[in-house]
Amino acid sequence: MSNSVDLDCNNAGRGVWLVKVPKYISQRWEKQKPMTEVGRLKITTDAKTGKPEILFNLSEEILKTDTSTPASSTSANVPKATQIPSDHKFAISDIQHQTLAVFSQDDNKYLAMEGTVVQKGECQPIANAHYMKLKRESIRIASQPTKVVQKIDRAVNNFKPINAHRSEIENDMRKKAEGKKMRDDKDVVMNALFAAFEKHQYYNLKDLERITKQPVPYLKEILKEICHYNAKNPHKNMWELKPQFRHYKKESSNN
């Protein structure tokens, strides 16, 4: 008996966008009812470059969605008391050498092709004061200890800890085989940078490369968004946060 499944290709010619969104957005989308408005796009053209500028604004329904469960709040690392950003921008990437499509399947295993990907991008929060406040609070939560001392009244079985888990070994071997550093998610790199600038005001590129363990070209892209590069003394060849992202104490300016 054949196990083949019919594929509905009526929408094969329809163009769709493939966009990666932050985890705090996807968690709220998963809780919505069908046909709920999740946000609105505004597409304009930059007067100087002539390139399209795509802005995305989350709906009030999404902003008010409660995801304050132990599992979601830990994985997303978003503080419950801080509202998520409402304004985002789309960073568009090239898909000339890729062929991508979107498929759907209902409860009856009915498979349909929903369209062909014509645009690929990443939804990024706009780095304003509100977003920086959220990131600082996320870093603070991430730095809190996750383990506590617990008193027990009976003996328990002791297990020898594993120095290196299999997944870690495989990841290290893959990095060595590729002969290059692997890019982490942009939010992960920004978290590491903000945590570093909490300790010192100025860093050279070599130290930031060691801290983040990222490829230099990728690291520079992120640094240019949130930092200034000092070309003159007394901090020549050093990076520091842009004024709108700084929140050191007064005495830290001499570091």
Describe the fold and architecture.
The chain is an alpha+beta fold. Helices cover about 30% and strands about 20% of the residues. The protein is built from eight helices and nine strands. It has helices spanning about 25-30, 60-65, 70-75, 130-140, 165-180, 185-200, 205-210, 215-225; strands at about 5-10, 15-20, 40-45, 50-60, 85-95, 100-105, 110-125, 225-230, 240. The strands form two sheets. Strands 1, 2, 3, 4, 5, 6 and 7 form a seven-stranded mixed sheet that branches. A two-stranded antiparallel ribbon has the order 8-9. β3 (about 40-45) and β4 form a beta hairpin. The longest helix is centred in the middle third of the chain and has 14 residues, at about 130-140. Mean pLDDT is about 80; it is low at about 70-75 and about 250-255. One of its GO terms (molecular function) is DNA binding. This is General transcription factor IIF subunit 2. It is found in: Nucleus.
Low-confidence stretches: 70-75, 249-255
Give the terminus-to-terminus CA distance.
Answer: 74 Å
Number of helices: 8
Beta-strand percentage range:
15-25%
> What is the typical, i.e. mean, pLDDT?
82
**Main sheet: strands, sense, barrel:** 7 strands, mixed
Indicate the percent of residues in helices.
Answer: 25-40%
- Content-based structural category: alpha+beta
Q: What is the chain-wise order of helices and strands?
A: EEHEEHHEEEHHHHHEE
Shape: globular
Radius of gyration: 23 Å
State the total count of DSSP E strands: 9
